[in-house]
Amino acid sequence: MAPSSPTSSPKQRDPKKFPDGNGTAQGAWGRAWEVDWFSLASVVFLLLFAPLIVYYFIMSCDQYSCSLTAPVLEVVTGRSSLSEIWARTPGVTARAAQIYVVWVAFQVVLYMMVPDFCHKFLPFYVGGVQEGAVTPAGTVNKYEINGLQAWIITHLLWFANAQFFHWFSPTIIFDNWIPLLWCANILGYAVSTFAIVKGYFFPTNARDCKFTGNFFYNYMMGVEFNPRIGKWFDFKLFFNGRPGIVAWTLINLSFAAKQQELHGSVTNAMVLVNVLQALYVVDFFWNEAWYLKTIDICHDHFGWYLGWGDCVWLPYLYTLQGLYLVYHPVQLSALHALGVLLLGLGGYYIFRAANHQKDLFRKTNGHCTVWGRKPRYIECSYTSSDGRRHRSRLMVSGFWGLARHLNYTGDLMGSLAYCLACGFSHLLPYFYIIYMCVLLVHRCLRDEDRCSRKYGRDWERYTAAVPRRLLPGLF
Fold first, then answer.
1. For this UniProt entry, which segments traverse the membrane (predicted)?
2. What is the predicted pLDDT for the residue at 30?
3. Per-residue pLDDT tens for 191-229?
4. Same domain, 320 and 373
5. At 103, phi and psi to the nearest 5?
6. Nearest in space to 403 (alpha carbons), one of 312, 327, 467
7. Cβ neighbour number for residue 81 with a 10 Å cutoff
8. Domain check: are 131 and 219 in the same one?
9. Do 232 and 368 reside in the same domain of the chain?
10. In contact, 235 and 245? CB cutoff 8 Å
11. Longest Cα pair distance anywhere in the chain, in angstroms?
């Protein structure tokens, strides 16, 4: 859920090898050992311009009613200057700093000090202490899975305040939106800087570090695989899920409250955005233990890409639809609203059902049924760095027989639904689907590049059996 990484596959060198618990050579895991010029240019571009992109979108809504062209036209025609636009932008305030410090501290307390109890009474929910994947150094980290509990507690307090206590206005997030942006940037850069210093001087596990020799690449993509403080505070899990994703639904609720305050009602478009995005957020926390097996945890290092991205990029650009609807309250026709709802729910179903099929296939080693039939698969083999031969199975049934990454297709359908809820008058709400297309297509290519190197000719057999990546019959 962070900014997309550079769009090339940095070359690997053959370092001193040691196997992890899955037989993966050191040179085959995580980020690159060496950085080509295009990857470096991509990294520098993102470091320079990603913060400006976030600022431009938020400033456009604050000063130009979400018009992406108006600021440029004003500067080009001389009606305004960059310094004047900047001068009109609210700065950080003591109030915003207080809100942000309390928010982050509260999420740290929920993460570190409140053991999960949801798994004790919610059927099928996996929480509590869980083990992650084996790291390249052979370490198996343990995690306290309590994100769903943190989300529930946070939102119960939010609604209790709105209904009974009235400690703060439900519009508090919108009212301090730009000052909070500067606070989020401070935290994002602080944690990213701390992560690289820690990686160089006092890593959690030195064998889980990678250094390219290029500072900019190390800073952005990270040095440490799993930086931790103490036994339980895991930087990657905390910042991936909290505080950004817990805040996502609160931000949308604050936008809905502001729409009510300004326009006297909450439109059905705002309701759809809140409901569909809340479904995604709750699903994320319901499956937080499953998330320990994903590319973010099992492959990515922790650097600016995740640290700043989860503090700033995610909460500010993933919520653009709700922000837009505050300035442009869209009331959809019944047919349009129904179409958006069905697209969002259909995308969610495909996303979740596809992932469930793969998990079931892996857990049972193929001894299960998918769509009422025994699943078909391709037998694959690969050689680990210690020379041992391993066997694996790649499923070509169910959703995974239609496309190699159909779970991403479902994700994109949901992303498009959020945007379509905002109508067709402005481009700004559609940034999200454009970004998600770039992110997920690039993630497909990253994943398939690793699989191709791992399985060789067996991967060619698999891609011949399932020729499409995302769209059956097209791509």
1. 37-58, 97-114, 180-201, 269-286, 306-327, 334-351, 415-441
2. 54
3. 999 999 999 999 999 988 988 888 999 999 999 989 999
4. no
5. -60, -50
6. 467
7. 11
8. yes
9. no
10. no
11. 69
